[in-house]
Amino acid sequence: MIARRIVELVEDKQAHDIVLLDIRSQTTIADYFIICTADNDRQMRAIIDHIDEKISTEHGLSPRFEGSADTGWVVLDYRDIVVHIFSQSQREYYRLERLWSKAMPVVVVQ
C-alpha cells in the first residue's frame, strides 16, 4: 500500500506525530490522509524531496504540490492519498485530526 510506504518515508526523515487516516467513509476527495510534523523548514524540504523521489521511482507517481516549507504547511496530492506536512504551530492551528475525527486511524506514530 502506497500510503503505508509514505508513512515509512516520513519516518525516515524523522517527522513526528505521524497519522495515517482512512477517510473513505467520510469523503470522496481521497482515500487516505497522512499528517505529520516537521521541526523546521529544512527538515520539511527533506521530507518532501524524499517522498517525491521514492514514490516517483517506486510507483511512477508525481504529486501536485501546494504550499511551501516557509509557510509551515505543504500538501502533496497523489489523488487517493493526500500528505500534509506541517510545522508544529500550523498543525496546532489547523488541527486536521479534529476536523477528521470520525476517520479511522490506520497508523499512528509518535
Give me some keywords for this one.
single chain, 110 residues, alpha+beta, Beta Polymerase, domain 2, six-stranded mixed sheet, 6 strands, 37% helix, globular, translation regulation, repressor, Iojap/RsfS/C7orf30, cytoplasm
Give structural notes.
This protein is α+β, with helices and mostly antiparallel strands. It has a single domain (2-109), classed as Beta Polymerase, domain 2 (2-Layer Sandwich). The chain is built from 4 helices and 6 strands, in the order αββαβββααβ. It has helices at 2-12, 41-59, 88-94, 96-99, and strands spanning 16-22, 32-38, 64-68, 73-77, 81-87, 104-109. A 6-stranded mixed beta sheet has the order 3-4-5-2-1-6. β4 and β5 (81-87) form a beta hairpin. 32% of the residues are buried.
Secondary-structure blueprint:
Layout lengths: L1 H11 L3 E7 L9 E7 L2 H19 L4 E5 L4 E5 L3 E7 H7 L1 H4 L4 E6 L1
Parallel strand pairs: 2-5
Antiparallel strand pairs: 1-2, 1-6, 3-4, 4-5
Helix pairs in contact: 1-2
